Automatic annotation (TrEMBL):
Record Pfam families: His_Phos_1
Protein's recorded name: Phosphoglycerate mutase family protein
UniProt-listed Gene3D superfamilies: Phosphoglycerate mutase-like
Domain of life according to the entry: Bacteria
CDD domains: HP
Length: 197
């Protein structure tokens, strides 16, 4: 029986420049979107969830694991690209730096982890997760940046922000067969898992 792997990004967060970015929680919209997905039963075949250790990812994964009654594990290696060198950046400035991050994968932009380094890390975390997974579907819960880098790797595409999840605050996913390891399509909003959105 085929196993489906899904990579899901956390939805909208409460931005607080006074808090370290990895500790930002979901905001009300983000929590409501996760609650709707958890209540939908759309992930019913999922037997294991692995989450980044960032607060926003764990707050996405935990209600889903509870609703499914399945195991949830934390993998710190699934964190978003390391942006601690700059910390919080105003939205316009962040977008410019993020563009440069994807455009020059081997270059550290303003001290950020390079896209190439982040891709190597997330691919290794993915391989570890899949190699230890048994029966049933697997859900990985993480972030848009490294999720896009994983997507590019699996789809055999060069690193490019063209393949990013796009605007809207996150809460998107892509899926693939565990054996074939080729994404079925690009990013979709989580609501598409249960026929909404």
């Amino acid at each position: 029986m085929s196993r489906v792997v899904r990579y899901l990004t956390h939805p909208q967060v409460r931005i607080d420049p006074q808090i370290d970015i990895p500790r930002w929680p979901l905001n009300e919209v983000g929590r409501a979107r996760v609650a709707a997905l958890a209540a939908s039963g759309a992930l019913g075949g999922t037997t294991r969830i692995i989450s980044s250790d960032e607060t926003k990812a764990m707050e996405t994964a935990e209600p889903l694991a509870k609703a499914l009654g399945c195991d949830m594990q934390i993998d710190a290696a699934m964190h978003e690209n390391d942006r601690s060198a700059t910390g919080f950046l105003p939205p316009d400035e962040f977008e410019q730096v993020a563009d440069a991050f994807f455009a020059a994968p081997e270059v550290s932009v303003r001290g950020w982890e390079t896209a190439a380094q982040a891709q190597t890390r997330i691919v290794r975390a993915f391989e570890t997760a899949l190699s230890s997974h048994g029966a049933g579907d697997l859900l990985l819960v993480g972030h848009g940046g490294v999720g896009t880098l994983l997507y590019c790797h699996l789809a055999d595409l060069p690193i490019s922000r063209e393949h990013d999840q796009g605007p809207g605050g996150g809460g998107c996913y892509f899926a693939f067969d565990a054996e074939r390891r080729i994404p079925e399509r690009g990013w979709l909003p989580m609501e598409r898992l249960y026929g909404a959105g």
